[in-house]
Specification:
Layout (H helix, E strand, L loop, with lengths): L1 E2 L20 H8 L8 E4 L6 H8 L3 E5 L3 H11 L21 H15 L11 H18 L7 E3 L3 H10 L4 E6 L12 H14 L14 H13 L2 E9 L6 H10 L6 E8 L11 E10 L3
Parallel strand pairs: 1-7, 2-3, 2-5, 3-4, 5-6
Antiparallel strand pairs: 6-8, 7-8
Helix pairs in contact: 3-4, 3-5, 4-5
The protein binds S-adenosylmethionine.
Length: 295
Amino acid sequence: MDIILKGQKPILDLPYFGRQSRFFEFFDKCITPLMSKNGIYAETNSGSNSNIFMFAKKGYKVIANDISLYSNSIAKAVMSNDKPTDIMLDGSYLDKYKKSYLDRASLFAGLIDIYGYNPQIPDHFDNKLDKTIIKYREHLKSVSEQGIRAYKIYNEDLFTYLKKLQEEHINVDVMFMDFAWPWRDGTKTDEYDTTANVFSKIINSDSKSVQIWDKNNVIKNVIQAINEAKKVSKYVLLSNQSSNYPTPEILEVALLKHGIKYEERHTMLTDAEYEDNLGKETFFREYLYVIKGNI
Ligand SMILES: C[S@@+](CC[C@H](N)C(=O)[O-])C[C@H]1O[C@@H](n2cnc3c(N)ncnc32)[C@H](O)[C@@H]1O
């Protein structure tokens, strides 16, 4: 499939770097034929959770995972009834946003809305920030009230997550993987450093530091992730973008050299606008590789 579609606003609509909402209709067309009636749809890097929410709303069992506390807070806020067990208050103005996943996700969304992916969190209370947080809280609450629940939600490094699925004997129809790909020049995506590392420190001072992939480790990690994902999946769907390193050509050679043959390669082409933030191209292409798993 090679198509151009106009993107739509997703139902679950929070600011999240790398959110793929413009491709959701395309993903739906590629993924739904691979799903069995009561099948499980899973992701390794759920990010905004907007895609996974779409599949949950369609009636599939879904499994979310992401290392970032922001992503995990969104998933828990809208697709679970869980309460955090790691509440650490320190007397700062941020304490009032730490007590539920709804508050945490709204706080992080508000910080991004006002301050972008700036690793400096303001040390004073700000009315504008508070109002923005309330706006996101209302949105998340209304999505949560739709009663759509995930089958499972993890907050792990993706290799630990894939191992856990094996240990728990959980097999899925589709494992969708949209990694924190480095930029085309090979540098890591700093925005995920903010959402994974800086944001977790606000909530939990003991949080482990997450290493975001760069040119030196990305290909090795991608091959390893595909091989691990195949063990628990009927299909592994690898999502890559023209603005990333490795480029599709480099990635495809690496896949072939490692004996990974994809059954299909779907693509969707669109105007670059904000997606290609290297500002080098006027286009942006999404690549979706369908790889048969071992299940
Ligand atoms: C490109 S974004 C995913 C965006 C998602 N497809 C969406 O539409 O919102 C990549 C995600 O990978 C997460 N991530 C980075 N390193 C990770 C790791 N080692 N394990 C699991 N998730 C990781 C980041 O926190 C980020 O949310």
